[in-house]
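Hi support team,

I submitted a single chain yesterday and got back a structure, but I'm not sure I'm reading the token output correctly. Could someone confirm the output below corresponds to the sequence I sent? I've pasted both exactly as they appear in my results page.

Thanks,
R.
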Amino acid sequence: MLSGFVFDVEGTLVDSVPQNLRSLQDALEHAGHRVPYQTLQLYSGLDGDQTLQLAIPEGSERERKEILAEQGAIYERDYLSSVKPFEGVRDVFRVLTEMGGRVALATDCKGIAFKRYLSLLNADDYIAATACGDDVEHGKPDPRLVGIALRKLALPGAQSVMVGDTPYDAEAGLEAGAKAAGVLTGGFSEETLSQAGCFAVAEDVRALLAHLLRGEPEPARAQLDLLRKSA
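Hi R., thanks for writing in. Yes, this is the structure output for that exact sequence:
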């Protein structure tokens, strides 16, 4: 059985991907750049500066920093209040903890948004460690964020799994020496997440539970039975 469970937050534990993409699109338009939503979706979960290098290759480093700063302000002002947690997250954390696992969060977000997410999840009693955007300069797929979470858990990557909604989460987890598992709540396909190295992919974290407990794929009925017993 795996011992460490490192979770991404945005798109994995809270339903925030559309809001994040819309706020970035707004900031880009204010700077004179029209980038289709579908294009930004391809880079959802990627480090913000890397995203802009791909979306507006003509943009300077200074412009990218200004756009990201404005996006953060727009997101907090116009979109953050609409973010909701996905169902069953607290239950999943409880089951993992009761089975002897340790839960950590590894997310690029920080500040007001991160505090809001923690409040929405209402699962502080099951979260053993956090690593956020305040701890690193670069976001995923850079593995250092996951590495910090693993060090705080005092667990080796070989005994742990990174759970996320994007191929960049999987890449970061694998580079940090952990396994990777994926959920479909961020807009990426099962094929994309599997190709990125996820040993299991499910509709959401609730459906992923049995895979996490066993460290391998598990029939859907067994997942539901585990949650019923924990209720």
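A quick pointer for reading it: The longest strand covers residues 102-106. Let us know if anything else looks off.

Best,
Support desk
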